[in-house]
Amino acid sequence: GLTLSLTAPKLYSATAQLLVQSTGSIGLTAGGQGSITSAQVQTELQLVNSAQVQSMVRKELGGSAPGVSAAQLGQTNVIALTAVSADPALAAKTANAYASAFVDWSTATTLSNLATAENQLNGQINAIGRELAALPRGNSPQASALSTQQAVLKGQLAQLQVAGSTAATGLELVTPAVAPASPSSPRPAQEALLGLVAGLIAGLAAAFIRDSLDE
């Protein structure tokens, strides 16, 4: 175990941390109203290595997009993005590239969702306007109901427009990755200890087997 550990190439791990927050009135990948659940954080974890994010990382790193591991830190709303490389500076750069790309992609998705919702509301408001224009003049129950419905839709549209001006992604880079000073693997002391334990277990097992087979 010690020999393998000393001859193995050194690898460095760098970790960037993202905070998953509620986006208020804006539903996103794992956002929505109220508090963030563990299931919503897990949804974000599955999107970190999505094709769109990897494409953005390739542009940032110049054609290569080594994968990162994403994990939830305990029961918190924090996601740890860890990159591993033989170059400590590249490990940190990769982790930060994924973190930035993920935040940018989420922001773009938010704005796209808002634009789609605004277009749908505008279409409904215009349709009601055409219905009102086709009705005879006067205070009819149908005209009153349509006017009320149109007012409600206009209120929702105003809220979306306000949300669009202050659109939040629900993701925030709270701890950028830094180049590690020491390798994360191999670990000679730990692997030598594991080798010693494995050797003792194998030796005892062999002794018991030999004793049980001795007639």
Classify the helix fraction into a percent range. 55-70%
What is the molecular shape? Answer: elongated
Mean pLDDT score, rounded?
82
Tell me the number of strands. 4
Q: What's the Cα radius of gyration?
A: 28 Å
Order of helices and strands: HEHHEEHHEH
What does this structure look like?
The protein is of the alpha+beta class. Helix content is 58%, strand content 12%. It has six helices and four strands. The protein has helices spanning 2-7, 38-47, 51-61, 88-134, 141-165, 188-213; strands spanning 12-20, 69-72, 78-85, 171-175. Strands 2-3-1-4 form a four-stranded antiparallel sheet, covered by helices on one side. Helix 3 (51-61) packs across helix 4 (88-134) and helix 4 packs antiparallel against helix 5 (141-165). The chain starts with a helix and ends with a helix. Mean pLDDT is 82; it is low at 24-34.
Summarize the structure.
The chain is elongated, with a radius of gyration of 28 Å.
Supply the key terms.
215 residues, 4 strands, elongated, alpha+beta, four-stranded antiparallel beta sheet
Layout of strands and helices, then pairs:
Elements: H1 2-7, E1 12-20, H2 38-47, H3 51-61, E2 69-72, E3 78-85, H4 88-134, H5 141-165, E4 171-175, H6 188-213
Antiparallel strand pairs: 1-3, 1-4, 2-3
Helix pairs in contact: 3-4, 4-5
